[in-house]
């Protein structure tokens, strides 16, 4: 059963953190229902936030969803194309953690995502210095 | 084959420009000089070396009307070169820039000088810059009769201002009447596009002046219709490596060149929606390519490659990717590998300059490209039947 959502106002970091917390609840439910692709898409919505604390909180949520994905190709098929570039950014953040399990998963996603979308996606994730994750 | 001629001049070319009759070419061989070559009996001979700049020559243009060459450089200077006998004599143009100049263009041909009343030529200038923005200015040149020129009809200039780019712009007759940097230009910015979150490079106007196209280093190409108070922008994500320069060959077809070393064709459909059509040049992998959309491993002769066939365009990913993904795979060869080369491609390094050539027929079909491989390639779209509908 979904928890009641806390009221959210746009703008401040506190409010964005609250939004992320709400997202986190939704994602956990979706993972429990064996819907990792939907969970990931939910995690990627409204990403990335601008504030550093929010970025970290959002990464935690995205990471949870990433680790729940077993069928990478299936996930990419159902993912809305507008999330490809942001997903690639999170893949690089995952690769930078150095954690073996995270890196292994991110490497797999990197491979399939590059195959699907091409080098341009990698370039866009590297060249964008404004919307960083 | 769309590439009809390939000329290997030097190791690396920064930019190039053709003489009015296209018998000579001027280019910068990635240093502070401008070299002029002439085609003599089927061989390119170096005729002149223009030495005056202190740093890289980043832009060259050869006037079609007055046969003068203008060059700009990272040394923040510009020279106009006049041919006097066997020599090319430079005249310094004071630019008052505090940054490098990156490109330059002579104003459009055929602008008559004022006879009685000096009219102002209203020109739309588009600039791109390393701050990622594309700015369009409405600007004026004094002393030019402009009745024929309407808004939107422009000289397809390419330049930018801001952090690293500037322009020198001349009238096409004898007198140097107009020279400016971004601070001294009589201008009115009519549009600023902040579509790219990274460096923006080549910009080009469509023949009618209604559409603008520019490229970003984030593998994007931007098409802007109805440049003015309410423009219509299309952001087209490029699947491949970023583009450096762009050229309209017709109202509905654009050629982009860049780090994929192969010109890319973009076209607009009937509703004005732009999309990538295909690569122009040959793209053969060095191995027997696999089926479309799949990825397979090929090992042999100590070379491990990942070869992917993207439907029509097969491409070879370097063995670096192989190593990146291969950590869980067996049998990776540890021998030294040769870099995979795409056979049959006209350019084998980044193309950074594309120029229109004089056309044989009524439709624009020929253009030249130069790149960091030191080659100048002439392209002709005549045999590309699938592209005819866009010309």
Please describe what this structure looks like.
The complex is a heterodimer of chains A (133) and B (391). With 133 residues, chain A is an all-alpha fold. Chain A has helices at residues 13-32, 36-44, 52-68, 72-78, 84-95, 100-117, 119-127. Chain A is built from seven helices and no strands. In chain A, helix 1 packs antiparallel against helix 2, helix 1 (13-32) packs parallel to helix 3 (52-68) and helix 5 packs antiparallel against helix 6. Chain A is globular, with a radius of gyration of 14 Å. The model of chain A has no long low-confidence stretch (mean pLDDT 90). Chain B has 391 residues and is mainly beta. Chain B has a single domain (3-145, 183-281, 345-387), classed as YVTN repeat-like/Quinoprotein amine dehydrogenase (Methylamine Dehydrogenase, Chain H), CATH 2.130.10.10. Chain B is 2% helix and 45% strand. Chain A binds chain B through residues 85, 104, 107, 110-111, 114-115, 117-121, 123-124, 127-131, and chain B through 197-199, 216-220, 237-242, 295, 308, 310, 321, 324-325, 327-328.
**Bulk shape of chain B:** globular
CATH topology term of chain B? Methylamine Dehydrogenase, Chain H
The CATH homologous superfamily name of chain B equals YVTN repeat-like/Quinoprotein amine dehydrogenase
Radius of gyration of chain A: 14 Å
Oligomer classification: heterodimer
Number of structurally distinct domains of chain B: 1
How much is the average pLDDT of chain B? 73
Strand content of chain A is under 5%
Which secondary-structure class do the elements of chain B indicate?
mainly beta
Largest sheet of chain A: none
Largest interface, C-beta within 8 A: A-B, 19 and 22 residues
Class by helix and strand content of chain A? mainly alpha
Spatial order of the strands in the main sheet of chain B? 1-28-27-26
Gyration radius of chain B, to the nearest Å?
Answer: 22 Å
> What is the terminal-to-terminal distance of chain B?
17 Å
The count of strands of chain B amounts to 28
SSE pattern of chain B? EEEEEEEEEEEEEEEEEEEEEEEEEHEEE
Low-pLDDT ranges of chain A: none
What's the average pLDDT of chain A? 90
> What composes the largest sheet of chain B?
4 strands, antiparallel
User: Treating each run of at least 4 consecutive H or I residues as one helix, how many helices of chain B?
Assistant: 1
């Amino acid at each position: 059963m979904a928890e009641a959502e806390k009221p959210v106002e746009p703008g401040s970091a506190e409010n964005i953190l609250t939004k992320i917390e709400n997202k986190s609840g939704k994602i956990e439910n979706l993972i429990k229902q064996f819907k990792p692709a939907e969970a990931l898409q939910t995690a990627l919505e409204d990403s990335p936030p601008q504030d550093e604390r929010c970025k970290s909180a959002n990464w935690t949520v995205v990471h949870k969803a990433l680790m729940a994905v077993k069928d990478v190709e299936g996930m990419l098929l159902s993912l809305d194309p507008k999330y490809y570039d942001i997903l690639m950014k999170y893949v690089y953040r995952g690769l930078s953690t150095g954690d073996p399990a995270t890196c292994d998963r991110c490497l797999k996603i990197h491979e399939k995502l590059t195959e699907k979308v091409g080098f341009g996606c990698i370039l866009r994730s590297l060249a964008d210095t404004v919307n960083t994750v | 084959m769309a590439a009809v001629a390939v000329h290997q001049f030097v190791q690396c070319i920064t930019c190039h420009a053709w003489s009015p009759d296209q018998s000579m070419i001027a280019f910068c061989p990635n240093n502070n000089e401008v070299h002029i070559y002439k085609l003599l009996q089927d061989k390119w001979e170096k005729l002149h070396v223009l030495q005056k700049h202190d740093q890289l020559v980043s832009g060259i243009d050869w006037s079609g009307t007055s046969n003068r060459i203008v060059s700009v450089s990272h040394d923040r200077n510009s020279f106009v070169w006049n041919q006097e006998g066997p020599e090319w004599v430079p005249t310094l143009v004071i630019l008052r820039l505090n940054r490098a100049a990156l490109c330059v263009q002579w104003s459009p041909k055929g602008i008559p000088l004022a006879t009685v009343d000096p009219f102002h030529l209203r020109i739309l200038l588009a600039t791109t810059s390393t701050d990622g923005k594309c700015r369009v200015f409405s600007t004026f040149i004094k002393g030019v009769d402009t009745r024929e020129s309407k808004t939107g009809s422009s000289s397809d200039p390419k330049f930018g201002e801001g952090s690293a780019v500037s322009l020198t712009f001349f009238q096409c007759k004898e007198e140097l009447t107009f020279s400016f940097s971004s601070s001294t230009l009589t201008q009115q910015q009519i549009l600023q596009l902040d579509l790219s979150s990274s460096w923006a490079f080549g910009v080009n106007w469509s023949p009618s002046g209604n559409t603008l196209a520019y490229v970003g280093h984030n593998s994007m190409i931007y098409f802007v219709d109805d440049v003015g108070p309410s423009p219509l922008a299309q952001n087209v994500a490029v699947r491949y490596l970023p583009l450096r320069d762009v050229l309209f060959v017709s109202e509905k077809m654009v050629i982009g060149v860049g780090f994929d070393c192969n010109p890319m064709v973009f076209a607009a459909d009937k509703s004005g929606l732009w999309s990538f059509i295909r690569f122009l040049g040959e793209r053969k992998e060095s191995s027997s390519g696999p089926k479309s959309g799949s990825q397979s491993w090929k090992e042999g002769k100590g070379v491990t490659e990942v070869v992917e066939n993207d439907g029509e365009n097969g491409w070879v990913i370097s063995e670096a990717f192989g190593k990146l993904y291969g950590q869980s795979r067996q049998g990776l060869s540890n021998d030294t590998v040769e870099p995979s080369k795409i056979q049959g491609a006209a350019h084998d390094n980044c193309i950074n300059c594309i120029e229109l050539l004089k056309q044989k027929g009524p439709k624009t079909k020929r253009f030249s490209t130069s790149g960091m491989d030191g080659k100048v390639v002439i392209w002709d779209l005549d045999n590309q039947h699938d592209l005819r509908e866009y010309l």
